[in-house]
């Protein structure tokens, strides 16, 4: 068995092993098999070239007697302080338990160390248990020697996802009240919600935008009956995770969610998109107003360079557009139960 860097002329081989991974373990990846299968050849050529160049990304194959049995990609965070993300990790089932996964990880960590990275994160998705056999093996530090510098690369397992618990208004007969659950490793933080969209009982904090809303009494009752933290307008910090309440209108607040250099905004009660959402990776915004106002929020998000806009707190005009198959001018309608990565 050997691990080697992909070559730039191996676009088709990269495509085949990636599709094999998505077909065998769809739970371990964010990208659906159908979407990746439909990608044009030019995309795979760019991926192979980038993975071979090893400048902002690196891709390694694991091979056994000439057969490709695994792959992994490392992504250099350009804006981060020497941070590398490990993604797209997969090993063929027939060869698991023989050390291919460990050697693939070591290859990326070695590349990260050579480039002077101070941190390497392995991102996993729902169902891809970070407490499995591979992660229980030592993977804490990688010593590296660079010309002019010596140090250690911290390596950690990271799980970050946001789950929409509800997308309706507080009086919606169709959907549960707008609510969000943030999962970061073992940390759980709930945002807003109510009956039918309350966060899970093991949350570390239940944050709300308005502690005087009509739903707050129900939230307090749920918290008392389940032993959850009392819902409140408050910040929450845990290591790289920082959640900050910010005013949006009157006594109401939205939340800025920061994980490392990634930013998201939860602003479901804001008739106009807040300026502090500018340039953020993911924004959940208010869709309760009339259709022209909702369209203006979408256009503002595009103007503010929001990478991904999700409309929640859907009022009757938004639901009519949703039922008619009419998307917002920018972004998308929220879906109960949908998971988003940050």
Level-1 CATH class name of the largest domain: Alpha Beta
Beta-sheet strand percentage? 25-35%
Which regions contain 5 or more consecutive residues with pLDDT less than 50? 129-150
The ordered H/E elements are EHHHEEEHEHEEEEEEHEEEEEHEHEE
The major sheet is characterized as: 7 strands, mixed
Give me the Rg, rounded.
22 Å
Structural class: alpha/beta
The CATH superfamily label of the largest domain reads Ribonuclease Z/Hydroxyacylglutathione hydrolase-like
CATH topology assignment of the largest domain: Metallo-beta-lactamase, Chain A
The total count of helices amounts to 8
What is the molecular shape? Answer: elongated
Estimated helix fraction: 10-25%
Number of strands: 19
Task: Output the strand order for the largest sheet.
Answer: 1-2-3-4-5-7-6
Mean pLDDT, to the nearest integer, reads: 85
Question: What is the count of distinct domains?
Answer: 2
Distance between the termini: 35 Å
Write the CATH architecture name of the largest domain.
4-Layer Sandwich
Task: Compile the SSE list and pairings.
Layout lengths: L1 E4 L5 H14 L8 H5 L3 H13 L3 E8 L2 E11 L5 E9 L8 H15 L4 E5 L9 H4 L4 E6 L2 E10 L1 E7 L12 E6 L2 E6 L12 E3 L8 H11 L9 E3 L2 E9 L2 E8 L2 E6 L14 E5 L4 H13 L5 E4 L3 H8 L8 E2 L5 E2 L2
Parallel strand pairs: 4-5, 5-7, 10-11, 15-16, 16-17, 17-18
Antiparallel strand pairs: 1-2, 2-3, 3-4, 6-7, 8-9, 8-19, 9-10, 12-13, 13-14, 14-15
């Amino acid at each position: 068995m050997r691990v080697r860097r992909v070559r730039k002329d191996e676009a088709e081989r990269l495509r085949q092993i990636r599709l094999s991974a998505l077909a065998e373990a769809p739970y371990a990846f964010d990208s659906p098999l159908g979407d990746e299968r439909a990608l044009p050849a030019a995309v795979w050529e760019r991926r192979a070239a980038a993975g071979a160049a090893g400048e902002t990304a690196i891709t390694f194959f694991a091979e056994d007697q000439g057969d490709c049995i695994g792959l992994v990609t490392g992504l250099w965070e350009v804006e981060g302080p020497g941070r590398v993300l490990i993604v797209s990790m997969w090993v063929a089932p027939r060869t698991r338990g023989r050390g291919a996964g460990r050697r693939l990880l070591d290859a990326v960590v070695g590349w990260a160390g050579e480039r002077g990275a101070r941190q390497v994160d392995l991102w996993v998705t729902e169902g891809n248990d970070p407490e499995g056999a591979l992660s229980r093996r030592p993977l804490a530090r990688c010593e590296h020697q660079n010309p002019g510098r010596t140090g250690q690369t911290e390596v950690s397992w990271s799980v970050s996802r946001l789950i929409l618990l509800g997308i309706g208004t507080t009086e919606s007969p169709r959907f549960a009240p707008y609510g969000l659950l943030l999962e970061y490793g073992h940390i759980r933080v709930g945002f807003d919600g109510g009956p039918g969209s309350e966060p899970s009982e093991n949350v570390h904090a239940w944050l709300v935008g308005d502690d005087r809303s009509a739903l707050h009494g129900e939230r307090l009752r749920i918290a008392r009956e389940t032993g959850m933290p009392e819902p409140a307008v408050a910040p929450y910090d845990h290591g790289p995770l920082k959640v900050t309440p910010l005013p949006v209108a009157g006594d109401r607040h939205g939340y800025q969610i920061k994980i490392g250099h990634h930013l998201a905004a939860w602003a479901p009660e804001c008739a106009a998109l807040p300026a502090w959402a500018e340039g953020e990776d993911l924004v959940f915004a208010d869709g309760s107003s009339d259709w022209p106002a909702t369209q203006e929020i979408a256009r503002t998000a595009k103007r503010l360079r929001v990478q991904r806009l999700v409309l929640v707190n859907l009022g009757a005009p938004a639901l009519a557009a949703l039922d008619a198959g009419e998307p917002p001018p920018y972004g998308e309608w929220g879906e109960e139960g949908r998971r988003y990565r940050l």
